[in-house]
Structures are given as structure tokens and as C-alpha cells.
Amino acid sequence: MSQVTAIHTDQLYIGGRWVAPHSGDRLEVFSPATGELIGSVPSADAADVDAAVTAAREAFDSGEWRNTPPAERAAVLRRAAELINERGGQIGALISAEMGATPADVATLQQLPGTGVLAGYADAADTYPWEEKRTGIFGETLVVREPVGVVGAITAWNVPLFLLCNKFGPALAAGCSVVLKPAPETPLNANLLAELFTEAGVPEGVISVVPGGVETGRALVDHPGVDKITFTGSTAAGRAIAARCGETLKRCTLELGGKSAAIVLDDVDIAAAAPMLVFSGMLNAGQACVAQTRVLVPRSRHDEIVQAMVDVAATFTPGLPSDPETKIGPLITSAQHDKVTDYIERGKADGATAVLEVAGPRVGTEQWVGPTIFTGVTNDMTIAREEIFGPVVSVIAYDDVDEAIAIANDSDYGLAGSVWTADIARGVDIAKQIRTGTMGINWYAIDPASPFGGYKGSGIGRENGREGLESYLEHKSILMPMGYSS
Question: Mind listing the domains of the chain with CATH numbers?
């Protein structure tokens, strides 16, 4: 049974208040692990989206939040982080019930980095040069940074707490208003978290939540009152959103898919590296855009490295999130389960060998896929080209480092990656040659203070740090009279 009481909400959180929806449709949320109905919310229609955007626009135009000093906005973000940590148990249990991750994974992969990015954006707001004087050929200019306006934020279901914080954080630090459309699979936590931000001090009107599916998202993207869209999700959906934003010259930030390569060098201490290497490919049941799912290994050490990976991955026990022995929870939906198992069968049909294929438990739903490792993979195979979003890792052999770099770069994606080596300087040199937005040496993580985003099909723009804050700002130049000096 689920550890949370079913949550059924009849109202929408619009402008920091609960209001009756226009739509009569509802979203039901079922546990991926047990199949239980754990909650339901109204599914917002275009009229509900319009109400949310109108509230956001009125709040922005009033100037209450955008004119609040950046240091005070930063303090609100820090208070929101404190509230999330204070109620981490409640939030973690709810998210675990919604999307199937273990409470430990929610704490490690969502709460810790989520509160971290809030602190990071608060720090960026404190130190950012909101006004700057420059001298050019015409004299002095005052450069002013101002919030972009109303932000439409659309998030995926795989790490909902982290994604919400990484949308609210920069938008609120910049002084914007936000209308959030959470994924239809995980809307319950979004309402709870939005209330926490209001409790932390965000004024009325600034935050709204409009749960729904594709039509709700389309209404938000197309609304003329929205100045910027920030989206995390699939590359296919990102292309469609970018096209719509392009038609109206609406700003957008897109954090999309990945097919990241972990380059294991010939000097690696594989006994020490294997646990983190496997985790980097199978974290969150593989449902992570940054998962290192292509593991490139030197042919001279192939069998040794594969055996170390298999030994570790075999301990990644699939099971109910409530079981303390569980390392891998269920996949989010039956459709996602079928997609992942189809990829596994495609890998076999293309000639790859599943050297590890752990069956899921016979409990609850049938949405289980255990850790799976393929060898004999070439980079032209489907399982090496397409994002699977499950706990499936492809091992690809290479003969020299130049070939490894070429394989890593031979991808439609460019979001993440890593190098595993005893020589850190050598690892950094190789990392600089990979066409991807983020890299790790002997591990992978998203650091809140540093820019995160993708090359190629992995997105447009950057989140986190100063770069993430800047993407929510407009830059205005005010030219002083000739001869003027302040």
C-alpha cells in the first residue's frame, strides 16, 4: 500500500489562491508501483490557463515582486528551501507514490539538488550586477537588467521536485511571475510545493499551477501574455515548442534528451569506479536525461570492466519503493515499460548481447525493468542512438582514445558525459573534446553553481548559476547625454 493518504483537489492554485476551475476534466494519478489511485486534480483548459496568465501579468505589471530588491527575493528562495527541507519526509513520500522512486532517491536526486539550486540562484541574485556603467565612443551608458516578464514553465515527471525548483528559482530570483504546468503523471507535489513558495513570501498573483496534458501545455505556449517558455522534456516536444515560440518571437529555454557517453580509460581503477559508473547509467531507474547509458571501454580491458559492471548492477535490486532493499523502482507508466522492453528486444535483434538482464519483482503493477547491460554494441545500433529512459546500458568497445572521442561525439544529443581515469589532467583534456554541455571526471552530477544545458538535440540555453539567472532577464541600455559623467 502507498504511504500517503489519497489527495483529491477540486480547485486550481491560481495566483497564490485556490479557485474553482473552468474545466470539468480531471487528472487521476496512479502509483507506478502498486496501481493504487493516489490522487486527482482538475485538468486545466485554455480558460484556466488564461486566468493563470492574467493573474501573473497583473502581478508582474503591479511591480510588487519585480521591484522587490534582489536580496529580498533571494531571502524568499532560501526560506523556500528551508521549508522543503523541513517537510522533506512528507514531500518525499508523496513524490515516491507519484513517480515510483525510492524515498532515498527522492532525497538524493531531487531534494538535495532542488534546494541546492534555490540556494545557488539566491547567491546569484545577491552578487549579480543588476546595474552597470559602461563607457563607449558616445560616453556613458547605464546597462540595466530587468525581469523578462511572465514565464510559462513546463516540466517532466522524472524528477519533479528538482525541476520545479530549477524553474521557480531563476524566474523568481529575476523578479518574474510563473505559471507552471507540471507533467500529468506528477501534479500532486506541484500544488504542495507552490504553496510552500507562497508561504516563504512570494506575493499573491506571482505563482500559478495549471495541471494538464498536451492541450494545456499548448495553451500556455501560445498565450500572448507569456513572455518566456522554459521546458524540460523530450527532444520531439522541445522542437514543437521552439517552433511555436519562433513564430511569436517568444523567448525559450529547452532542456531536452540525452544519450550520454561515459569514456572509461585504460588506466581506470575499475574496482573503485564501477559502483558510481553503473549508478550514473541507471540512476532513477534510468529515467534521467543525463544518464550515462553508453559506456565506452578500451578493448584491451573490455571483459574485466564489463564483469565489474555486471557484479555491481546485479545488486541494484528492483522492487517496491517502500522496501529499504530496493535500488530501482518501477517505470512511470505501462507505456514507458513497453517502450523500454521493446528497446531491449531491438538490441538483441540487432546483434547485441544482454550479459545482464534482471527480472522485476512479481508485485504490484507490471511496470518493472531490472538492470540490463548489453555488450557487442556498435554505435550505429538503435540502443546506442536513441534515448531509452530505462535502466539499460550499452557497452561499446574502442581501440584508442581518438576513436572513443569520435564515438562519444557521434550522437544527435549533447547533454552530459564523463571520463573515468586515474589521470585527472588527461580526463579534463578529453572532456574538452566532447561536444556536450556538461561533463564529469570519475563521476557525474549537476552542480547548482555551474551552467547546465545541452548541445545539438539536447536543448537551447542554460540553467543554473549566473547563466541560468541571465536567461530570465532582459538587458536595457540607457545612454547618457554626451559629456555626462556620474
Answer: 7-256+459-476 (3.40.605.10), 261-448 (3.40.309.10)
